[in-house]
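We give this protein:

***
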Amino acid sequence: MQMNTVVKRHPSLLASQVNDDVVLFSAERGMYYGTQAVGGRIWSLIQDEMSVSDICDQLLAEFSVERENCERDVLQFLEQLETEGLVKTS
């Protein structure tokens, strides 16, 4: 995955907001996944297609974080979602 990769939620997932966290359910895998506040924000941003770079730009505007750390953490989070089949990339 690269900064110009476009990411979107997998359409078959169910998601529910629980306080500041988001709980995801994959019926295909029979698995639940939980995110914390920033992961939940990323999940909300990828309701529609969005590039990794645009996701980072949005998070940098909302949170106090250095760009290098943001990019590394966002890429890592999205790669985990991709590995679990929770997002589609192009």
About this structure: DSSP finds three helices and six strands in the chain. The first helix runs from residue 37 to 45. The chain has a mean pLDDT of 89. Strands lie at 6-9, 14-18, 21-26, 31-35, 50-51, 87-89.
